[in-house]
Specification:
Number of strands: 11
Cofactor: heme
Order of helices and strands: HHHEEHHHHEHHHHHHHHHEEEEHHEEEE
Membrane topology: Single-pass membrane protein
GO cellular component, one term: membrane
Shape: globular
Keywords: Heme, Iron, Membrane, Metal-binding, Monooxygenase, Oxidoreductase, Transmembrane, Transmembrane helix
Structural class: alpha+beta
Bound molecules: protoporphyrin IX containing FE
Number of helices: 18
Strand content: 5-15%
GO molecular function, one term: heme binding
Mean pLDDT: 92
Number of domains: 1
Length: about 500
């Protein structure tokens, strides 16, 4: 009898769940959902391609509705509509999805990337003040110093006839800069191999990235969430090792801080926090700094990998870029013989190439999901976006949409120079609106200085003569190529 009752309850639940997912919120079409999992199986593998396909099927290519288990999800396929949601209606979409993963990383949504509607504005203001309160020159110095280090390592590798591993070295480069900027903790000789303590830090960052797959069931199924929390309490969470390290840095900073003369971003955040609210300092400052590291390292490293890969497969562009860079350095030389930010306005082709790489391979191909805190209408009232929806920007399909880009799958940096696509406001790999990427300027400076000096100093060749490096993307937390090595030939 009890068994029959249980079967009956489960059956009713499944029928209701199926009905809600497929027959409610009917003004936005999407693929059919099954009970419990919703549309998760539909988008699980190569979601960027699934969204690209769906953008040709549903709602005139503007958006589509999916169910990620219990969470109604709207994927935006159209750049104009994305602006309408993220700029015009920004106050309704400034929260993040309340998933257990974001909860645990962000200390109950108290970080910056993970911050919900209660913390976001407050933490964003603190962070912006901390960035602008520091002299930006310090960051540029740090990037230039690290670039000299890595270029000298590349020269060593090149002379010794070894191949250059792109992923590990770019990760080391980016972690060293952000650790220096945020904690004043640069790892000496990182490219030759760090010491045990430093390796622990690098491992903590990498392990967390390995773990951070997107669209996991436990993040979207309410009934599973308590088990996930209990499991993480007992066995630990992949974000714990990095947080432990950052806790140590935080304590050291607290002991030695001079509030009026902050040494680094961590000092600045602590000072700003103390000005407004001393109460939750530790539980907020640790996730904020933790998430700065997470947001910075993977995205920039991925972009560096794609840029190197594309140029390695296109020797003709390397020649063009080399000619442009060497000419400007001759025109305005400097002591270090380094391309720096003052050269940027004089290198239009290089700038366009970087833009083209970010268009074809946006490192965060779906943006970072937002959560709606109120129902609202878009597209002249045609679509209602329900409260509690997860909003995804399908950047990959938008950046390859014929509506906005000619021959969208082709690598054509020139499209960004002096033609009708060059002024396009449909290029936003760093997202748009008031909650866009905080690190956009930081990222652009780092990418420019490192990659320009790479092209200036070396010819980038594939490991085997006349071969091409595989450019099929791997879809995970970010959007990266298969790990690859290159042969760096020193230019004379
Ligand atoms: C190629 C490099 C990068 C790309 C493509 C990128 C892209 C993005 C995107 C799409 C978002 C989501 C914004 C939204 O919710 O609409 C974001 C957020 C964020 N990014 Fe980046 N990012 C990059 C580099 C960086 C760097 C270097 C830093 C740190 C210095 C950084 C820090 C952040 C932070 C803190 C947020 C959260 C902002 C907030 O929620 O208010 N990013 N980024």
């Amino acid at each position: 009898m009890i068994f029959l009752l249980i079967v009956l309850i489960i059956s009713i639940y499944l029928i209701c769940d199926y009905y809600i997912k497929n027959y409610w919120y009917k003004d936005i079409q999407g693929p059919r959902s099954i009970p419990i999992l919703g549309s998760l199986l539909h988008i699980k593998d190569d979601a960027h391609l699934v969204f690209q396909r769906d953008s040709k099927i549903y709602n005139d290519g503007k958006l589509a509705k999916y169910w990620f288990c219990d969470v109604i999800t709207i994927a935006l396929f159209d750049a104009d509509l994305t602006r309408e949601v993220f700029i015009k209606n920004h106050e309704y979409v400034n929260s993040r999805v309340k998933s257990p993963t974001l909860n645990l990383i962000g200390n109950r949504f108290r970080g910056i990337v993970t911050a919900d509607e209660n913390y976001w504005q407050f933490h964003r203001d603190i962070l912006m003040k901390s960035f602008t309160g520091r002299k930006i020159k310090t960051l540029t110095n740090s990037i230039e110093k690290e670039t000299i280090e890595i270029i000298s390592f590349m020269k060593f590798i090149s002379k010794s006839g070894q191949l250059f591993s792109t992923r590990s070295n770019f990760m080391n480069f980016n972690s060293n800069i952000i650790f220096d900027y945020v904690f004043s903790r640069r790892i000496e000789n990182i490219y030759e191999g760090a010491n045990e303590e430093q390796l622990k830090v690098l491992k903590a960052i990498r392990d967390l990235f390995e773990f951070l797959a997107l669209f996991e069931i436990q993040n979207y199924t309410k009934i599973l969430q308590p088990f996930y929390f209990i499991y993480s309490k007992i066995f630990g969470h992949p974000s714990d090792p990095l947080k432990k390290i950052i806790y140590k840095y935080y304590k050291e900073h607290c002991e030695t801080i001079d509030i009026d003369n902050p040494r680094d971003v961590l000092d600045s955040i602590i000072s700003e926090y103390r000005k407004v609210n001393g109460k939750e300092e530790e539980s907020s400052v640790i996730p904020i700094t933790n998430e700065l590291i997470l947001a910075a390292v993977e995205t920039n490293s991925t972009t560096m990998e794609w840029f190197t890969l594309e140029l390695c497969n296109r020797q003709e562009y390397q020649v063009k870029l080399y000619n442009e860079l060497s000419k400007v350095l001759k025109q305005s030389p400097n002591e270090s013989n380094l391309i720096n930010l003052s050269h940027r306005p004089l290198t239009p082709l290089f700038n366009a190439t970087l833009k083209e790489v970010l268009r074809l391979y946006p490192p965060v191909p779906f943006g970072v999901s937002r959560l709606t805190i109120k129902e609202f209408k878009i597209d002249n009232g045609r679509f209602t976006i329900p409260k509690g929806s997860q909003i995804i920007q399908s950047l990959y399909s938008m950046f390859r949409d014929e509506k906005h880009w000619s021959s969208p799958n082709e690598f054509k940096p020139e499209r960004h120079i002096n033609n009708n696509e060059s002024q396009s406001n449909n290029w936003f790999p760093y997202s748009i609106g008031v909650r866009n990427c905080v690190g956009m300027g930081f990222s652009q400076d780092e990418l420019y200085i490192l990659l320009a000096n790479l092209v200036l100093n070396f010819q980038i060749l594939p490991p085997f003569e006349n071969s091409k490096i595989n450019d099929t993307p791997i879809f995970g937390f970010s959007f990266r190529p298969n790990e690859f090595k290159v042969n760096l030939k020193l230019r004379q």
